[in-house]
Amino acid sequence: SFSTAVNKSATRHAVYLEGGRNNAFTVVFASNSEISGSGLYALDSDTNTLTQSTVWGGQRGVWLDAGSDYNAVSLSTMIGSASRGFYAAASDSNTVTLSYMWGGAYGAWLNTGSDYNVVSLSTMIGGTNIGFYAIAADSNAVTQSVMRGGNYGAFADPGADRNSISFSTMIGSTQYGFVASSADSNTITGSYLWGSVRGIFLDNGSDYNAISLSSAVGNSDYGLYTNGSDSNTVTQSYLWGGLRGAWLDTGSDRNAISLSTMIGSSSYGLYAADADSNSVTQSYMWGGSYGAILNTGSDYNAVSLSTMIGNASVGFYAVGSDSNTVTQSYMWGGVRGA
User: Fold this and answer.
1) Checking DSSP bridges between strand 215-218 and strand 192-195, what pairing results, if any?
2) Centroid of chain to Cα 267
3) Integer Cα distance of 205 and 217 in angstroms
4) DSSP state of 62
5) DSSP β-bridge partners for residue 169
6) Which of 3, 256, 287, 311 could bridge across to 268 with cysteines, CB 3.0–4.6 Å?
7) Is the pLDDT of residue 270 over 90?
8) Rounded to an integer, what distance in angstroms lies between the CA atom of residue 269 and that of residue 138?
């Protein structure tokens, strides 16, 4: 058997919980077609379950509002026509598994104070913008899931720290696979990231993030791009860009790349500009033009136990850069090695 809840009010929701505890919704169809409506809304409601259900709203499919903790959604579809498939605000320790989230703009959004939530074995699609979005939301986990957005696959905005994404796929149809902006200590492991422009973008003071055992592809631009972001690590990963494999830009210092491959199809495998004290070890850099370039103001960087190949020009090239070291490495260029 199944149940149906339909509401067409802009100020009401098809299913409404306030202070609800231990409720179970199974095989439910909940619909609110109004532009600001939600299929299911929960406020200060804990340990409820939703399974084998379809929840549709003009704005949001499922909305877990302040203090809605330890709820579980499984085997369900959440659709928010205008905005978000799944939305949590100041709601902790909820789980979503084996579910599909589609929003006109965002597939899933974890807003301020939504911590320790877990999404697994699920799909998040953001029609015009982002598949999975987190802002000021910490210690959440996404695993074995797909995130695709019209712009970005996954986006960690300011204060989204200590989150993890593992064994997942992130696709940015027109921009980037994954973006972090002022977001620290996040991890990506065993994942595939594809962006029409860039695979991974660490921006504006995104520090201490770790990427491992992953592939990042920037179709037209860079596999990895960092801007003003420090102390990040990339290990056992593949970075491919239509232009550059990896670009460490202004103020990106003390980053470490190891046991990785960086390929810049038409330009450079690795490019650093005004970026200091970074290290590359046991890695392979290939560029259509240069293998690796340290440009003006890139000082105290170290490359060791690595290979740099510049197909048309130079394997390793430094200009206006001081106190850098290259040890136990192989450099080959169509014109010269270094």
Assistant:
1) parallel
2) 25
3) 22
4) E
5) 146, 192
6) 287
7) yes
8) 33
Strands 3-7 and 28-32: parallel
Residue 48: which of 79, 86, 10, 74 has the closest Cα? Answer: 74
pLDDT at 6: 80
Q: Name residue 199's amino acid.
A: G
For 164, the 3-state DSSP assignment is: strand
Q: Token pair for residue 88?
A: 């949590």
Confidence of residue 35 (pLDDT cuts 50, 70, 90): confident
- Per-position DSSP letters for 77-138, written without gaps between them: EEEESSSEEEEESS--S-EEES-EEEESSEEEEE-TT--S-EEES-EEEESSSEEEEEES--
Q: What percentage of the chain's residues is helix, strand, coil (to nearest 5)? A: 0, 55, 45
Full-prediction pTM beyond 0.85?
A: yes
Q: Is residue 295 within 8 Å of 319, Cβ to Cβ?
A: yes
Which run of H or E residues covers position 7? Answer: strand 3-7
297: nearest Cα among 282, 275, 312:
275
